[in-house]
Amino acid sequence: MSDTKVDNDSQKLKRVGDWLCRKGAYERAIGRYTEALSLKPDDKRCLVGRSKCYLNMCCFENALKDAEASLKEDKTFSKGVYQKAEAFYYMGEFEFALMFYHRGLKLRPLKQFQPEFQEGIEKATVAILNSVANPSLKLEKKGDLTFLQRQDEMADPFTIAIQHLAVKKKRQAQKIPKSEKTAKQWLGEFYDDRKFLEEMLSDEGWCKGKTKHGERLQDIIQSSITSIDACAEFLNQGNPICTLEREHKQKCSKPHRSPPSDPAQFLMKSLDEIDADLTSGNAEGSLKKAKEVLKNVQGWSEKDVPNKKEVLGSLHSCIGNALIHLGEMDKALEHHQKDLELAKQCKLPDAMSRALENIGRVYAEIGQYTQAIEFLEKKIPLVCGGLEETWLFHEIGRCYLELHRFKEARDYGLHSLAAANEIAHGKWQIRANVLVAQSEFPLGNFETCVSHFERALAMAKLQEDQDALNAIQKVLDEAKHRLSQ
To answer: In the chain, what are the domain boundaries?
Structure first.
């Protein structure tokens, strides 16, 4: 394998990992990062990405290990320094964290690149002072939840059920208050997890069991509860009462432009709601929500949201997709073009790929196939393979078919078919074979045309797709008739 191909494959896997990490799919992201690192073991940005995922899963020691590995060749790599400081901070090693936050600040003297290190210095300083005032607040290293993410094929269902409870992203929480209402406020989704674990702990039938490795289920359950409490206690050591009051005021106050206490969490929740509305068919609700969030973010500073342009691009994309569903294609096009402009400014390959695809879709939808091809072909170098590649080649081929450029349509159809065969995707194998057959027919290649229609027909039978069977059979009969003449 050439060095260029290794680099390209590694970068594709890294981009997928970055995307999954932003979506909160940390386990899957770690898988992609690990694959990328198997190709390029010293990719420091990939190591930082995987470290972030481990940190979000409370696997602090693994996070630290990757952060240190990213600094092996370059001790001045600021992202690695910051990640190492973060790992120390969440391990409860506040003095070490403070040292690396200061080191990072010296590496990035320009003011616009300082916020994360300045914030780190502040929170580490506060944590040190709080630890001195109340030593019990320090998070012990034994809180590492690595064992909860083991994907052991031999583990029994009880262990697997427990493991998945601890994988959710860490949430702001306090050591469980006596009041159930207050506990729910602090733990959020973790409240149900802890309650479930407590119920399991009180069930003697469960607790007496053992895993196939000899571990007592009672010990595993108790360790899970302890880990949740440790993370919760540590993450909310600041001033819990003030935090609750602030959250209450935010819920009760009128909407305003200043960002919430945790902009990242707010944006992630908002984007999930926007996407859920669109998926459920509520395009109007999705559009309204996206516009509201866009207006809010536009009023925030880049200090509040360091990746502001990236967030704005995502919101323009959401608005554009909702407008497509509502049939307002011109307005949809405007928002997807804004998404593309922001993606280019920030040099974000995944966002560029998304915007190019959406612009191409809009042009194809309104019958402007030449423009659709122009944007969709620009997306080809950004494709990560598999299903996306199959769809993209098919879509470009269909546009060429509409323009009566049959040779190009056939070639793209064959590319789509090869990609569909590689992932063994039945429905796309049918569509790709039909596209090739439709392209071969006007070129007079009736024998090849019949062959591809017959393959599509056989696949439709396997898929038990009656609509496809009827449609393919009709055109196949016509192609056979022309072949016999």
So the answer is: 3-137, 145-235, 255-382, 385-485
Phi, psi of 210 (to 5 degrees): -135, 155
Q: Which residues of the chain have pLDDT under 50?
A: 110-113, 133-178, 238-256
Residue matched to tokens 């506060």: 126
> How many angstroms separate the CA atoms of 106 and 100, rounded?
10
Query: Of 160, 162, 161, 163, whose CA–CA distance to 149 is shortest?
Result: 163
Alpha-carbon distance 315 to 295, whole Å?
10
What architecture does CATH give domain 3-137? Answer: Alpha Horseshoe (1.25)
Please name the residue ranges forming H helices in 57-93: 60-70, 78-91
What is the spatial distance between Cα 127 and Cα 124, in angstroms, rounded to a whole number?
5
pLDDT per residue as tens digits for the range 179-234? 555 666 555 555 666 776 677 677 666 566 666 556 666 766 676 666 666 555 55
Instruction: Report CA-CA distances (Å) from 138 to 127, 130, 246, 253.
Output: 9, 9, 24, 34
Q: Which CATH architecture has domain 255-382?
A: Alpha Horseshoe (1.25)
Exposure b/e, 441-458, CB count within 10 A at least 16 = b: beeebbebbbbbbbbbbe
DSSP state of 136: G
* Domains 3-137 and 255-382 alike in fold: yes
* Range 385-485 has CATH code 1.25.40.10: yes
CA 342 to chain centre: 19
pLDDT tens digit sequence for 266-280: 888 888 899 888 888
